[in-house]
Design a protein that fits this description.
Blueprint lengths: L3 H74 L13 E8 L6 E8 L6 E4 L1 E2 L3 H6 L5 E4 L12 E9 L1 H16 L3 E2 L6 H11 L11 H11 L13
Antiparallel strand pairs: 1-2, 1-6, 2-3, 4-5, 5-7
Helix pairs in contact: 3-4
Length: 238
Amino acid sequence: MANTPKRLGLCWLAGFTLAFLLPWHIQSASAQESASAHEIDTRAGSDRLISRMRDVNKHTADANALVSNEASIESKSSTRKPGTGSAKGPYYVDFRARTAASWGHAFVWFGKTSQREVEVAGLTPAGDTLEYVLGYVTWVPSETGASYGDLDPEYLTASYRVYLNEPDAKRVFAYIKKLQASSPVWSAEISNCTSFIGSIADFMGLKVPVRWLRPEEYVNRLKTMNGGIQIVRLSPEQ
């Protein structure tokens, strides 16, 4: 019985120590779990960011894939010796059509096959929906360069590419630049995107469809009417 107070003292001391240390242990474990959860969230966020970056890079690569692949192919073919293989010139004009919020859009790519850079020419209203609607009843200001979607292969609906030698290309490209500079207005019925590329095709000596066709049908008809020829020779200058 003499040891009873001593034992009781030890029990009280052990209980006090346990009561003091237990909440700290629980908080420590909770903090570790929170840190682990934060680390997982951080890793997940990083993974999502990396995924989005990959998507952007893929989209950019897709947007340039057609240009770079064609440039590579034509660059190889242009190194062949005269009289062998393809007679395609190092320059081209590509009549193209793509989807749009309205009935579509027709335009041209032009440039040198050995280069990745592409020039774009087309005729569109300078504005948004209002200008487009007004263009059915009156003339509206125009734009003649690249518009949204012109460089994106996923919107492409038709394409007809023809090749030119250097002297002819210089004449055609100069005409395109002149046509851009002299087309300040757009009209859905009179001066539209199909009539614009039709003027280029006519200058090159190609047969052209009527301008009131939808862009996709226009480009396909242009190719059919000319037998799908790929090499164009301009008539000598007068």
